[in-house]
Amino acid sequence: MTEKRVRFKSAWLPWVLVAPQMAIVLVFFFWPAGQALVQSLLQQDAFGMSSEFVGLENFRRLFNDPSYLESFKTTALFSALVAVLGLSIALLLAVMANRVIRGSGLYRMLLIWPYAVAPVVAGVLWLMMFASPYGVVAYFLRYIGIPWDHLLNANHAMALIVMAAVWKQISYNFLFFLAGLQSIPQSLIEAATIDGATPWRRFWGIVFPLLSPTTFFLLVINVIYAFFDTFAIVDATTHGGPGKETAILVYKVYYDGFKALDINGSAAQSVILMGIVIALTVVQFRFVEKKVQY
């Protein structure tokens, strides 16, 4: 089988075609990342009128701050719950949607809708449902004898932001899982059925291994989503409270920079957060991908 390669008549044409994307990456990623790195090595006043080079002093101060170290545990727990629950529920829904015959189009459309909702709107929706004492879900929980108060109970607050974040991301995961399920040859499933394999055995022996590339991709995306894209949900629901029990790393970057006016400390936090996400992505590609069957 010969490999087909595209050849351009002009040596400059490929560079011209990728120039818009490269410009976006440079302007919206590399330039802000460089600015954050520079800011993390300086000490400025709140108005930016004067600055002084302090080297790694901002980083040393962060790692001596118990509340910042506690936010690592909060972020790890939150990210694990969002990734595991989001992928599990989306896979279950995709398997169910792949089997529906009558009304399957409507069923799939309803599952896709949450992805069109902005994160801050998703946060507000879940906040209204769980707002005590008049939220629908909070009222039902109180009716059955479960007092709900995410303003005072840290576990309730964590559960609230996890549910909102998972609900917001389920549609994205669902689309990829459904596409992966529909790409699996039905002849394999039929052959396993003829051989007497149970539905559970067919899923874990055939379907899930063939979905491993999709699962691995979604695992990386969901980890990045939990670290970065959930800021609006936390800000709209708990504001990092009660206390700082739900102050994940990305929210702490915002709070310290824009509310506490610690610009350089916030920049140092963003550099650390960026390094953590890069390291996690490298580890996933280095070790987790070995178990992926392409």
UniProtKB/TrEMBL annotation:
GO terms for biological process: transmembrane transport. The chain crosses the membrane at residues 12-31, 76-98, 110-137, 157-181, 202-228, 267-288. The keyword Cell membrane applies. It comes from the Bacteria. SUPFAM superfamilies: MetI-like. It is found in: Cell inner membrane; Cell membrane. One of its GO terms (cellular component) is plasma membrane. Its main location: membrane. PROSITE patterns: ABC_TM1. Residues 72-284 form the ABC transmembrane type-1 domain. Keywords: Cell inner membrane, Cell membrane, Membrane, Sugar transport, Transmembrane, Transmembrane helix, Transport. It is a multi-pass membrane protein. Belongs to the binding-protein-dependent transport system permease family. The complex is composed of two ATP-binding proteins (UgpC), two transmembrane proteins (UgpA and UgpE) and a solute-binding protein (UgpB). NCBIfam families: PRK10561.1. This is sn-glycerol-3-phosphate transport system permease protein UgpA. It comes from Ramlibacter tataouinensis (strain ATCC BAA-407 / DSM 14655 / LMG 21543 / TTB310). The lineage of its organism: Bacteria, Pseudomonadati, Pseudomonadota, Betaproteobacteria, Burkholderiales.
